[in-house]
């Protein structure tokens, strides 16, 4: 039952603790740990959680941040806010076949607010919010753990008592400094897990408040129960796991509020005992509250299902190979092995990786595989804990173990593959909420050891050492998440068989211009996963740029053979075929790419280049016009249109296209240059000069800009200015075609003028 105690200063708290100890064992009694007032305990937890991840504040956008933030149009002001409710986490329409169906509009909304306040894609603000969220959650954990470990007790004034101040502080510190949380805090897309956890905990604490005015255990606040359901819905709109809090609230209600003995209830059900009311099932409104929670949860899930659509998300075998295994036995064995690895990451979070897919964890296909031991160990521990949670005569022990297991298992269920296929093998971010249960079980184990140990201080020092090691591990791991290069390279030693790790290292090197090193990693990615089409595509691109066209064609042809709808590979294959002067095949490849991706401006641009090479000028102009319609800021397509019209003598049309382009992209110096050339040929010297000068101001080291401006002055008769810009052009590029000849002509003309003048 809920007791009525005074919670005024420390002496009254001690008296309350003493009275509680008379009826129920107190977890803090035998624990040698710091006893701090609630305010100071929360300050310590906040400070230490901040220190763990502070060095990630100025990190870059890394890994999934590119797709979820930089390339996500839902963050930009021109996208209507209403679109957020119809798009997935990555900005795709939920109705699309390619959507991952990850519906997190509130998380995307916070990204959008970050973007608007920062005035662009500046990662510092995004990182700072993540750090603040983790600190806030860690502080809330002090209250949550005080309830989970010490029970729910209120004073006469309705103030909740912390009956386990030492162990709740320890558990909160364990949570705050757990290295497995680094992905959620240092990786910006981890915002989804942080926001979900925040409202998850607020829902739990709100549910606890429903019993604040409860004197005999029969009354409760309907308002706070409904608030808890709403907060659970908000948690789910941040990330799917949030819905599980409603189930946990029901478990908490049964075990803590109603002190239900699960084993006794099962026995009575099996024996069809009519005294179920005495078992606590119908007492104190439990059945009504559970019905309310279940109805709320069912309504939330139904609404989400209607918004998401009926189709499941589309994942590939490389994302989650076990889920594609034909044998039920192989699927079951590997799912359980994944569970054991998740448990190991909670126990020993030393080997951490940004991605665990693509061969990182080979499938178990036989019972002779030694890794079966991990499954046996996991279920041995779980069954032991479950038996203790159900069968122990100590109600205090039953409650803590059941709540610990509940918080460990229930939030993990959406990621377990039991209800639907998930798009990963292991994801450290999904352990953020289950780690609450781990911290409860660890702290309870520590209290039991303390009770038996003669030298309690040595045990406390050992736990303190674990906390310090975790703090250092968090700081190290946070520094690895600061840049993609460090993040990807850190994974090479953890998952050397993961093709995606080698692919990402190669991509990072290629982006930095180190093509030779990138080729090595791309080749290794393809070796590890011979069906890795994205690695083939990127490797083919580099080989194309290095003029190794035959091998590039082989790789790209294989990529489209493996994945016939891979539009980017079809386009790149077309570029290679164009370079090999196999124009008909190139045209067919381009149109196949457009067939699979109708809105593909880059492909239309390359198709236009092919038509220009074949002197099919009308087709080229149409292709480039399609590119600019799909992507109005496509500078290369606009430029090629202006240049082609200029070269074919259509100066008026070239001028019109140039002006249209500059209205859309007013600061593009290459467009200014192209239009200035057209205006110069049309003898609109003054306007041409202004555009040339503007282009030079934007890009002062372009030799061609100075050279063509010199030609304009030469035609115009401004010979001194022409001489000046010819000289600047030759200084920037002594081998500039035509510039030296024009400069010599000008010098001879100036010499002739001097002779005439003399």
Quick take:
Keywords: Endoplasmic reticulum, Membrane, Repeat, TPR repeat, Transferase, Transmembrane, Transmembrane helix. By secondary structure, this protein is mostly helical. Helices cover 65% and strands 1% of the residues.
Could you give the order of strands across the largest sheet? Answer: 1-2-3
| N/C terminus separation | 116 Å
Give the biggest sheet: 3 strands, mixed
Helix content: 55-70%
What's the rounded overall pLDDT mean?
A: 88
Which parts are unreliable, with pLDDT below 50 for 5 consecutive residues or more?
1-23
Total count of strands = 3
What does this entry look like structurally?
- The chain has 758 residues and is mainly alpha-helical.
- It contains 33 helices and 3 strands.
- The N and C termini lie far apart (116 Å).
- The N terminus is likely disordered.
- This is dolichyl-phosphate-mannose--protein mannosyltransferase.
- InterPro entries: O-mannosyl-transferase_TMTC, TMTC_DUF1736, TPR-like_helical_dom_sf, TPR_rpt.
- Its EC number is 2.4.1.109.
Topology readout:
Elements: E1 4-5, H1 10-23, H2 38-53, H3 65-70, H4 105-118, H5 123-150, E2 153-155, E3 160-161, H6 165-176, H7 182-186, H8 191-209, H9 222-238, H10 244-257, H11 262-270, H12 286-308, H13 328-347, H14 372-391, H15 395-409, H16 435-452, H17 456-480, H18 484-494, H19 499-511, H20 515-528, H21 533-545, H22 549-562, H23 567-579, H24 583-596, H25 601-613, H26 617-630, H27 635-647, H28 651-664, H29 669-681, H30 685-698, H31 703-716, H32 719-732, H33 739-757
Parallel strand pairs: 1-2
Antiparallel strand pairs: 2-3
Helix pairs in contact: 2-5, 2-6, 2-17, 5-6, 5-8, 6-16, 8-9, 8-10, 9-12, 10-12, 10-15, 13-14, 14-15, 15-16, 16-17, 18-19, 19-20, 20-21, 21-22, 21-23, 22-23, 23-24, 24-25, 25-26, 25-27, 26-27, 27-28, 27-29, 28-29, 29-30, 30-31, 31-32, 32-33
Domain DUF1736: 311-383
Subcellular location: Endoplasmic reticulum; Membrane
Main location: endoplasmic reticulum
């Amino acid at each position: 039952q809920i007791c009525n105690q005074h919670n005024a200063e420390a002496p009254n708290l001690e008296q309350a603790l003493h009275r509680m100890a008379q009826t129920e064992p107190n977890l803090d009694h035998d624990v040698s740990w710091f006893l701090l007032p609630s305010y100071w305990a929360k300050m310590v937890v906040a400070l230490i959680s901040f220190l763990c991840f502070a060095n990630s504040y100025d990190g870059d956008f890394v890994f999934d941040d590119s797709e979820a933030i930089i390339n996500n149009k839902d963050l930009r002001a021109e996208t209507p806010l209403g679109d957020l409710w119809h798009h997935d986490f990555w900005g795709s329409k939920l109705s699309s076949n390619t959507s991952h169906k990850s519906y997190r509009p509130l998380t995307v909304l916070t990204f959008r607010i970050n973007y608007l306040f920062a005035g662009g894609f500046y990662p510092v603000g995004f990182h700072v919010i993540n750090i603040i969220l983790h600190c806030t959650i860690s502080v809330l954990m002090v209250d949550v753990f005080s309830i989970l470990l010490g029970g729910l007790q209120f004073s006469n004034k309705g103030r909740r008592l912390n009956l386990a101040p030492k162990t709740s502080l320890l558990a909160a510190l364990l949570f705050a400094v757990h290295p497995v949380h680094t992905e959620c805090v240092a990786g910006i897309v981890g915002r989804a897990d942080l926001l979900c956890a925040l409202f998850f905990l607020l829902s739990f604490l709100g549910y606890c408040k429903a019993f604040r005015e409860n004197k005999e255990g029969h009354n409760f606040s309907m308002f706070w129960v409904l608030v808890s359901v709403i907060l659970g819905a908000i948690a789910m709109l941040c990330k799917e796991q949030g819905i599980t809090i409603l189930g946990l609230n029901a478990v908490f209600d049964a075990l803590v509020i109603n002190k239900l003995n699960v084993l006794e209830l099962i026995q009575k059900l099996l024996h069809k005992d009519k005294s179920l009311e005495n078992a606590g099932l119908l007492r104190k409104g439990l059945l009504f509250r559970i019905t309310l929670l279940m109805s709320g949860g069912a309504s939330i899930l139904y609404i989400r299902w209607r918004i998401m659509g009926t189709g499941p998300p589309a994942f590939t075998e490389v994302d989650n190979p076990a889920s594609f295994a034909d044998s039920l036995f192989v699927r079951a064995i590997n799912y359980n092995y994944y569970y054991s690895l998740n448990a190991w990451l909670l126990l020993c979070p030393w080997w951490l990786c940004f991605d665990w897919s693509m061969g990182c964890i080979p499938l178990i296909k036989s019972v002779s595989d030694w890794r079966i031991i991990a499954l046996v160990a996991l279920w041995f521990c779980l069954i032991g804990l479950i038996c203790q949670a159900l069968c122990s005569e100590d109600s205090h022990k039953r409650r803590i173990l059941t709540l610990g297991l509940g918080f460990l298992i229930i939030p993990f269920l959406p990621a377990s593959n039991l209800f639907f296929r998930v798009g990963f093998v292991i994801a450290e971010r999904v352990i953020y909420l289950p780690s609450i249960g781990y911290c409860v079980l660890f702290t309870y184990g520590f209290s039991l050891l303390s009770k038996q140990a003669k030298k309690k201080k040595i045990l406390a020092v050992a736990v303190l050492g674990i906390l310090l090691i975790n703090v250092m591990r968090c700081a190290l791991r946070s520094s690895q998440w600061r840049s993609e290069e460090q993040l990807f390279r850190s994974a090479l030693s953890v998952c050397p068989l993961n093709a995606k790790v080698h692919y990402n290292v190669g991509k990072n090197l290629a982006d930095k211009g180190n093509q030779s090193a990138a080729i090595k990693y791309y080749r290794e990615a393809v070796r590890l996963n011979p069906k890795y089409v994205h690695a083939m595509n990127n490797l083919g691109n580099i080989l194309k740029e290095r003029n190794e066209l035959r091998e590039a064609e082989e790789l790209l042809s294989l990529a489209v053979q493996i994945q016939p709808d891979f539009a980017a590979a079809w386009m790149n294959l077309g570029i290679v075929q164009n370079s090999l002067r196999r124009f008909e095949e190139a045209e067919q490849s381009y149109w196949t790419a457009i067939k699979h991706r109708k809105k593909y401006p880059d492909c239309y641009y390359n198709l236009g280049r092919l038509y220009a090479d074949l002197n099919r000028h009308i087709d080229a102009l149409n292709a480039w016009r399609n590119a600019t319609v799909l992507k109005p800021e496509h500078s290369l397509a606009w430029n090629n249109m202006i240049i082609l019209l200029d070269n074919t003598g259509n100066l008026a049309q070239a001028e019109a296209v140039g002006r249209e382009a500059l209205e859309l992209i007013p600061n593009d110096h290459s467009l200014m240059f192209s239009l200035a050339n057209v205006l110069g040929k049309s003898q609109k010297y003054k306007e041409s000069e202004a555009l040339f000068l503007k282009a030079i101001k934007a890009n002062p080291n372009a030799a061609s800009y100075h050279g063509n401006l010199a030609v304009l002055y030469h035609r115009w008769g401004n010979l001194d200015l022409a001489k000046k810009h010819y000289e600047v052009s030759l200084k920037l590029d002594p081998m500039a075609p035509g510039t030296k000849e024009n400069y010599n002509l000008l010098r001879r003309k100036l010499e002739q003028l001097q002779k005439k003048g003399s």
